[in-house]
Amino acid sequence: MKSLQKNWRVLAAAILAAALFTGCKGADAVKEEPLNTYTAESGMFSVSLPGEWTEGDTMGLTDLMNLSRDDGMEAVIMGMTKGQLLGQGGSNVESLEDFFNYADALFLNGAAATTELDNTESIALAGMTATIAKDGTMTQKNGASGRLFIECGETERAYYLLMFSGTKGYDKKIASIKTNLGFEELEIPEPETLADTLRWFNASYAVITSLNGGDLNIPAGYEPGSMIETSMKTMLERDWGVTDQASLEETVERLVTKGHNSEALDYLAQSGTEGMTREDLITAMETNGFDDEEQTIMLAAFDAKNAYGDHAIAGWDLSRAMSLLGWGYLAGFYTYEEAMDKSLVTAQMIQQEFTSWDDFMNSYFYGYSYWSGNAPEDTDSQAYKRRRLFEEIKEEDNSPFSADWNTSLQKVW
Fold first, then answer.
1. Which of 153, 147, 101, 168 is nearest to 123 (CA)?
2. What are the b/e assignments for 340-376, b being 16+ CB within 10 Å?
3. 334: left (phi > 0), else alpha (psi -120 to 50), else beta?
4. Which residues lie closer than 8 Å to 32 by C-beta, 6 or more apart?
5. Helix and strand tally (H, E) in the chain?
6. Residues 107, 109, 113, 114, Cα dihedral to 10°
7. Within the chain, which residues score under 70 in pLDDT?
8. Pseudo-torsion of CA 139, 76, 58, 234, nearest 10°?
9. Neighbours of 90 (CB within 10 A)
10. Which tens digit of pLDDT belongs to each residue from 87-138?
């Protein structure tokens, strides 16, 4: 089932921008209309609303409904299982309030529009163990504005976001909706389990997938499609200079054979650190006027070399090679089979160079600090946040890191 398995940051914001405040049609009068029931394509939930609503494009998000009514009212209703949140960048969501803040940051402020909201009385909805409601105004980036009512609800297994917007005659219309709105949680599918080899692939770059809002239970993090393909092509060209299969293969080859690991080892050799203790190195750096970032970079390389020898920060390079192969498939540079075949070769190399997920990821984090200059002990740094995210992912049910490091990797596609 293709549920909320695409990039919410890209798709949900686009839907909101298109759906909310599309016009000022509609009169002040609100006539009594019969209730109609609408069900999400996934079958996860249904809502009952007064009047006839038209179901709009949801861009493949089957746990989302995009509804509009002839009088100018618009609605976006979405559900997200608690198990999906980690894969969509919601690892810190532990309460309904957290979910509202997550949804607000992801879909509203800074995405499709800016909002000014105040707390208001929530609607009692069947099956909800808790609800939060806000109302106020919303202004899109194109200047269009209108009134907005939002309610977030929590059930045992999922969170829901219900948004209604309008302009002319809004007060009477939203009052009718609030009075008549019905909600029912239907069937929540169990998460699909990937083959062990594919879960192993996903684990190798799970941190960046999660940071990017991808789904850890889908090969490469996203379902393929035209919007994802466009997004991936844009990102690959912007961040990597990759524009086609040839430049992608060149970049992956560079990461696998040299990468930052080769650079870091050369840096240590040129700096004369052989035989030095860590304390000696810190003293020497302080004596020679190294600033904090320079010390972080040097120590990341030094500690990684001491821990993993010539594979020092190769985990950083190889993790990025694995992610690039997945992204290359989503961008259309490889077929699925081609990307997985190449991933298999790289994954087997990773298994040979490291002995566990912790070793591999430690090498990755040393590499990130070497590349970024972020000190891992700085709790405000991305280095610290990435490591914390790794630890959180490990503890999740169905975590890709539950795949045994020594899994016999084989072609299952």
1. 153
2. bebbbebbeebbebbeebebbbbbbbbbbbbbbbbbb
3. beta
4. 50
5. 15, 10
6. 150
7. 1-32, 59-60, 83-91, 107, 109-113, 189-192
8. 30
9. 21
10. 455 557 889 999 998 888 776 765 556 788 899 999 999 999 999 999 998 8
Compute how many other C-beta atoms are within 10 angstroms of the C-beta atom of residue 277: 11
Contact between residue 44 and residue 191 where contact means Cβ atoms under 8 Å apart: no
Distance CA 23, CA 412 (A): 50
Residues linked to residue 139 through DSSP beta bridges, in sequence order = 114, 145
Which residue in 192, 125, 182, 195 sits closest to 159, CA to CA? 125
CA dist., res. 352 & res. 56, Å (int): 50
Amino acid at 189: P
- According to the model, what pLDDT value does residue 166 have? 92
Note the pLDDT of residue 179: 93
Alpha helices in 49-131 (DSSP H): 82-85, 96-103
132-141: Cβ within 8 A, 24+ apart: 132/96, 132/97, 132/100, 134/100, 135/174, 138/20, 138/21, 138/108, 138/113, 138/114, 138/165, 139/113, 139/114, 139/115, 140/17, 140/20, 140/21, 140/112, 140/113, 141/17, 141/112, 141/113
**Which residue in 284, 319, 313, 283 sits closest to 376, CA to CA?**
313
pTM listed for this prediction: 0.69
